[in-house]
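#struct-pred
JK: can someone run the complex with alpha-D-glucopyranose? inputs below
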Amino acid sequence: MSTAVAGKKPWMTDAGPTLGAMREAARALLQANTESVEYEGRSWRYSVPSTGSYPHQWLWDSGFHAIVWSLFDPARGCDELRSLFRWQRPNGLIPHVIFWHPKRAYLHIWPHLESTDRWGLRPGNRPRTTALTQPPVLATAVERLVLAGAEDFLAEALPVLDRYYHYLAAERDPDRDALISTIVQFETGLDFSSAYDQAIGAGPRSVFKLVVNSRRVEIRNKLAGYDLRRIFAREDHAEDLLVNTIWIDNLKALARLARRAGQPDLAAWAETKATQALQSLLERAWDPARGLFFNLVGSGEIRARAKTIQCLLPLLLEDLPADVAERLLAHLTDRREFWSPYPVPSVALDEPSYSDDSHIHGIRLIWRGPCSMNTNWFLHQGLLRHGEAGYASQLADRSRELVEKGGFNEFFDARSGRPVGAKKFGWATLAVDMQSLR
Ligand code: GLC
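RT: done, structure tokens with the ligand placed:
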């Protein structure tokens, strides 16, 4: 029997929060956000990120949901990914958003801008998916499900992953340096992050330009018919550090899955790509003077300047040289930069663009300060992989506290811990996984 009292979260008892109860609350949330759809004579299941604000299926959100499902119901986690894999294109791309209920999408402009469908707001012109993709977390998600017991899923998922990662290597690496390029900031999962301001010609607090100039890139992509040759001929594509860190880490996961399935050629391909990409990351994106990595923009690989969470993300990579990891750690644990009372802010506290909220002057501009559970989850693993159990444990404790006080929220104010953004948000349940990874 629950001893929860008014004002407390369901997993808090008089004796304090229990991990078991918090796990149950996570499971209940993913279950409450689950949608079941009949399509092509089959049933499909997935969780929306948040019922009010995000009523579709998103790629990396589903990857995170599947990881959390692996803790208590791997079969449900496999279904989460199956409903995404259904929409893989013949060229291997897995779209970043699936509009299972197209009528929820057609009155908004962005689904039309981000799809290849003929332009138009009439009910007949309802996009089914976007033409974008998102950070490639799917190999990690499949690996977690397989290790949790869904061994049969490997044979089903591996060909999909094979085509997807080969698509990224073949089509998304115009300069052949093994780092992959995004065609608009909305592919990085970090919409409106200050890391992209310079490239779109917007000042740190120019709300109007941030919104208009970022969407202008999408208008150009739409007018180019999402033809990658035409898009990469422009100078606004980028090699994003969060995307490329996840790319490298997931190539390693893909290699392990391929070895498990007895496919040494695929394993060797993925290992080699991961090694080349890490080498390029160090040669091109590492700034030894500042001790941080920076995003690369356009064919001239112009470095972004703002200190954002992307700059720290390569800490996740276990093969990162120890001296580089140490420099990143110094920034991550600096109270004036990233070690805020509730770490880790998506933008350093001492950046002019830093904001406590996910709205600026009432306009939704996310990833400009507040912290999110998915980036905390990556950095927590990075700390563990680089032998920093003390900091890892502090980060897990603060993350747990955020969820205990504010619920499974999209973002949290990195200084006060106040929940901001969407409520009852799926990937915030990664806080539970973080507790088990200690
Ligand atoms: C926002 C986030 C993106 C996420 C999506 C759905 O667009 O920036 O990362 O996938 O919401 O949760």
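RT: quick notes.
The longest helix spans residues 264-285.
The radius of gyration is 21 Å.
JK: thanks, will look after standup
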